[in-house]
Design a protein that fits this description.
By secondary structure, the chain is an alpha/beta fold. The protein has one domain: Vaccinia Virus protein VP39 (Rossmann fold, 3-Layer(aba) Sandwich). Helix content is 35%, strand content 26%. The protein contains five helices and seven strands, in the order H-H-E-H-E-H-E-E-H-E-E-E. Helix 1 crosses helix 2 and helix 2 crosses helix 3. The model has no long low-confidence stretch (mean pLDDT 93).
């Protein structure tokens, strides 16, 4: 598993030289600042889940998550062609059969098609939560990534689980798993 995550990070850095995939400039930075989100996410996703990563970009957090959780079926959604080309290359080279790469915007996905929806650094939490709730099945989870604990203005939504952690540079991170009803 560790070798495949490192291989992903090296491939990401190689492609990043010509395609803007991440602001990180080294494998160590990718691991310490971004892959940690994938590992944290893996603790919140129930076994055997179908997960959609919206705005997958350079494959974070979805690709390292899929490496660590081969029981999950992962769909990476990205509208930009160059990033989709990277994602498809990474999936092929890492031999990740449980991943599907879709060139689409979130609005073009089937409503209620997933157990878990995740999106990191794409939309403000409130906006993502509304969109994500439309993508998951009844009793599904929407994962919200933030720098600190966050609660929606809509008090009818509840956090089923949450996890706080710190990146290698000392940045605080939080993931909340919101339950659909």
């Amino acid at each position: 598993m560790v070798g495949r995550v490192l291989e992903f990070c090296r491939l990401l850095m190689q492609w990043n030289a010509s395609v803007n995939l991440t602001g990180s400039r080294s494998v160590a930075e990718v691991i310490g600042e971004h892959v940690v989100d994938s590992f944290a996410m893996a603790r919140l996703v129930p076994p055997g889940s179908s997960l959609v990563d919206v705005g997958a970009g350079g494959g974070l957090p979805g690709l390292p998550f899929a490496i660590t959780r081969p029981d999950a079926r992962v769909t990476l959604v990205e509208p930009r062609a160059k990033r989709v080309a990277f994602l498809r290359t990474a999936v092929r080279e890492l031999q990740l059969a449980s991943i599907e790469v879709v060139r689409e915007r979130a609005g073009g996905l089937d409503p209620g098609g997933f157990d878990v929806a995740a999106s990191r650094a794409t939309l403000p939490p409130e906006e993502w939560l509304g969109l994500g709730l439309g993508l998951v099945r009844h009793d599904g989870l929407v994962l919200v990534f933030a720098g600190q604990a966050w609660h929606p203005e809509n008090s009818a939504l509840r956090t089923c689980d949450a996890l706080s952690y710190t990146t290698a540079s000392g940045r605080s991170r939080w993931i909340g798993a919101f339950c659909s009803t």
